[in-house]
Design brief:
With about 280 residues, the chain is α+β, with helices and mostly antiparallel strands. The protein is built from 12 helices and 10 strands.
C-alpha cells in the first residue's frame, strides 16, 4: 500500500524499521543508509530533473553570485539538492560557509520564502512551481543547468524483499517504467495524471501538479530511469568531498540492476483519459 511522507528523515526511519519495504528517496540518502549497514538496494529511478533553486521574485538575488551571505533552505544534508548547490558554488567561486544552508521540510519552504524567513530554497517539485504560481517565487535555475542528467528520487528496496519476492520487485519496477513512458508520451497524459494524483493521493491542487509537469514538459522527465554507474559515482564522490560520506562505496555494493535490465523491452501503458483500465 502506498504511503506518503512529509520529509526524508521519516522515510529513513520507516525503511530502517521495516515499516516500509520500498521507497522513493534521494540518492545521497540511499548511499548514506547503505554505508550505515541498512540492507537496501537501488533498483530504479523515480524521475530525472525536477529540482530548482527558487528566490524571492522581486528580491535582491539576480544571479547565484548574489547568494553570498544569504540563507537557502535544503531538504536534507543527504540530498541531491545540497550537492547541486556545491556544484553551482564551484562555478561562481563561492566558498563553503559563504552561504548558510538550513534543513527544512519541503512543505514549509514556500511559506518561509513568502515570509522572507529565507532568501531562497532548493527543492524538488512541486514546491518550485508552488512558489511560482503564488507569485512570490522565481526559479533562479533548474538542476539540469549545473548538473546534466540530474537524478531526483530513486527507488530503493529492502534486501529481504529482493531475496524472498523478486517477482514482486520486478512488477513494481515494470509498473514504474511503463508509467514513466506513458507520462513522457504526451501533455494530455501528464495533465490527466496531475488531476488524479492531486485529487486522490497527493493532496495537492491538480493545477499545481499540471504546472510542475508541463511548464515546460521537460521540467521533470521519466526516462531514462535505469541506474547508471557514472551518475551514482558522481553522487558518491560529491558526498565524500562535502563531508557526508566517509567510505568509497562501489556501484555494485548498493545497486541491483537485474530488475531495470528487464525494462528495456517494455512499452507504455495503453490508457487514455476517460477509459476504465490500463493495459
Amino acid at each position: 500500500m502506498p504511503r506518503m511522507f512529509q520529509g526524508f528523515p521519516e522515510m529513513k526511519e520507516a525503511l530502517i524499521s521495516n515499516r516500509v519495504q520500498a521507497a522513493f528517496i534521494v540518492a545521497p540518502m540511499a548511499l548514506a543508509l547503505k554505508a550505515q549497514g541498512v540492507p537496501i538496494k537501488v533498483v530504479y529511478l523515480g524521475h530525472r530533473y525536477g529540482s530548482a533553486v527558487v528566490v524571492q521574485k522581486d528580491g535582491p538575488v539576480k544571479t547565484f553570485a548574489d547568494m553570498r551571505g544569504r540563507t537557502i533552505a535544503i531538504p536534507s544534508r543527504f540530498s541531491d539538492e545540497r550537492l547541486l548547490l556545491f556544484r553551482a558554488m564551484k562555478v561562481f567561486g563561492i566558498k563553503p560557509g559563504e552561504i548558510k544552508m538550513v534543513e527544512m521540510a519541503p512543505p514549509d519552504v514556500s511559506g518561509a520564502l513568502a515570509a522572507h524567513a529565507i532568501d531562497a530554497f532548493v527543492m524538488g517539485e512541486p514546491f518550485p512551481s508552488q512558489a511560482e504560481m503564488a507569485g512570490y517565487g522565481r526559479v533562479l535555475f533548474q538542476a539540469r543547468d549545473y548538473w546534466p542528467d540530474y537524478m531526483s528520487c530513486i527507488l530503493v528496496v529492502r534486501q529481504d524483499l529482493i531475496d524472498t519476492r523478486p517477482d514482486v520487485v520486478q512488477v513494481l519496477v515494470d509498473g514504474i517504467a511503463r508509467s514513466g513512458m506513458w507520462l513522457d508520451t504526451s501533455k494530455p497524459h501528464r495533465e490527466d495524471a496531475a488531476d488524479k494524483v492531486g485529487r486522490l493521493y497527493y493532496n495537492q491542487k491538480p493545477a499545481l501538479l499540471r504546472w510542475a509537469l508541463t511548464k515546460p514538459m521537460d521540467r521533470v522527465m521519466y526516462s531514462p530511469l535505469a541506474p547508471r554507474k557514472a551518475d551514482f559515482d558522481m553522487v558518491r564522490d560529491l558526498m565524500i568531498e562535502t563531508g557526508v560520506l566517509n567510505k568509497k562505496l562501489e556501484f555494485s555494493d548498493y545497486t541491483d540492476t537485474r530488475f531495470s535490465d528487464k525494462t528495456s523491452m517494455l512499452t507504455p501503458w495503453r490508457y487514455e483519459p476517460g477509459t476504465a483500465s490500463a493495459k
